Amino acid sequence: PRMLAFSEVMWTADSHRDFSEFHKRVRKHYVYLDGLGVKYGPEKGAIQFHASLAEDAQSVKVEIEKGQEELDLYYAFDSANLSVQSEKYKRPLSIKKSSLLKVAAFNGTNQVGQSSTLKVELSISTGKKLSLSYTPAEKYLAGGLQALADGIKGSDRFYDGYWQGVEGQNMEIIVDLGEETEVSSAGIGFLQSNPS
Q1: Rg of the chain over CA atoms, in angstroms?
Q2: How does pLDDT run across 165-179, given as a tens digit for each residue?
């Protein structure tokens, strides 16, 4: 596809370039590229998650966007392997317990790109009110000021939209559980990513 795009730029005058028309033509070439065994990536990330805590704070709603129309998404939870025999994604998922959601994109029976994961951890703090002593960086709000209690864990990619970024500030986080509650353990996750 990059050579097709390069050819388009080199052979088409600026005034005649039309990305939507080019895009239609490129998509017709996928069948030929597949027949030749060419391994090409999706037009954009093969898989993108859109997750949020449900209003009842008892589950996480997950919508999954595919990077190309002709891709099919298949998913599994925790240690299950992914294949076209896995559950096919058709509608938003409601995750009601701590789980690792794994998703892979397929074109026919061929997996496209790497599988993606989303970790959900529901606990007694999920959906509870937070008081923060700091202001997260605008680029890394992770879904808002209450995101640290939404049950959605950030991945190893700083740009996944599920991390709160803080620099040069002390962090104090108070979780209001609403009533006196016995707590057996507490934890928090951090990611240091130099490219970010």
Answers
A1: 21
A2: 888 899 899 999 999
